[in-house]
Design brief:
The protein has 9 helices and 11 strands. By secondary structure, the chain is an alpha/beta fold. The strands form 2 sheets. Strands 1, 2, 3, 4, 5, 6, 8, 10 and 11 form a 9-stranded mixed sheet that branches. It has a two-stranded antiparallel ribbon with strand order 7-9. β2 (30-38), α2 (44-52) and β3 (58-63) form a beta-alpha-beta unit. α5 (137-144) crosses α9.
Length: 297
């Protein structure tokens, strides 16, 4: 029987943290849950310590400052010894039987290094990012300038990286990337692929890892009958601009790391300008929203 170590990076997830832990500990395949806390200021860790009392399956690592998602994940990896590692966000809950299905598809396919479930929103709809194509500079350009509306007519010319709008496949499917909110990897491939890139503070480290898995010839599978429900945004709700800044900064790093030798410099410059323009728009909207709330209060 395969051993699974679950790695959860926590930051102010509140009650959702213990809910996530309970959802994975229901499965007998889980040997240990490793929670790496990035200096949470809420009650989530106090609630966890109360929940974990006497449960030797739960290990807690508490950082004195927020070290970022990738760095915290790597701390969890170094502490883990299971055959499989499941990375799950603290606001995500696995549904019954999902772990066994993920392990099964990896064990049956030696060329597979990573697998992910169908990630659902709380309302039952498929969440964006659950299965996706890599957002190359061209795909990002197409989406940023509204050309993705021509995707159905000219799919090769105007590709879209959001696959959740496509019909849900009936069977296990190879994809370019899955959601970092819930992903399982084979422990023994990490010597080949390496740990997460700690130069990403928050967001895009999962895309980076998916790219590196595929560069090593390892397949990534999307398993539609394995289910997880993700609340999304719980940990960053109090610092939306901080989250958006790191998301946009991460995308710039991602483009330059993997595509600077494949795309004309002008296109990368245009895409980069579009990324920061989008951040500016998000920042203005967020400021107006906060000002409106302040006036109402």
């Amino acid at each position: 029987m395969a051993d699974i170590d679950v790695i959860i990076v926590n930051y102010n997830a509140g009650k959702f943290l213990t809910m996530a832990i309970d959802s994975v500990l229901e499965d007998p395949l889980v040997r240990r849950v490793i929670v790496v806390d990035n200096a949470s200021r809420d009650t989530s860790m106090a609630e966890l310590y109360s929940r974990a009392k006497g449960d030797i399956r739960i290990t807690c690592i508490q950082n004195k400052e927020n070290l970022g998602f990738a760095r915290a994940c790597n701390m969890g990896i170094r502490a883990a010894t299971g055959d499989y590692l499941l990375f799950i966000n603290p606001d995500c809950e696995l549904q019954t039987g999902a772990l066994g299905k993920l392990v099964d598809v990896i064990e049956k396919n030696q060329s597979v290094g990573m697998a992910g479930p169908l990630v659902l929103n709380p309302d039952g709809t498929e969440q964006a990012g659950s299965r996706r194509a890599v957002p190359t500079p061209w795909r990002t350009f197409v989406r940023a300038f509204g050309l993705s509306k021509y995707h159905n007519r000219y799919p090769r010319l105007f590709p879209d990286f959001h696959l959740h709008q496509d019909p849900l496949p009936a069977a296990i499917t190879d994809v370019e990337a899955i959601s970092g909110s819930c992903m399982m990897v084979k422990r023994d491939v990490l010597d080949q692929v390496g740990l997460m890139d700690e130069n990403y503070f928050l967001h895009c480290e999962d895309l980076d890892w998916c790219m590196r898995f595929r560069q090593q010839g390892l397949r990534i599978l999307f398993v539609p009958d394995a289910l997880a429900v993700h609340q999304r945004g719980v940990c960053g709700k109090d610092r939306p601009l901080f989250v958006e800044w790191n998301k946009h900064k991460g995308m710039i790093r991602f483009y330059h790391k993997f595509f600077r030798h494949q795309y004309p410099g002008m296109l990368l410059w245009i895409v980069g300008a579009g990324v920061w323009l989008r951040f500016g728009i998000v920042a203005v909207r967020s400021s107006i929203r906060q000002l409106t709330w302040f006036i109402r209060d």
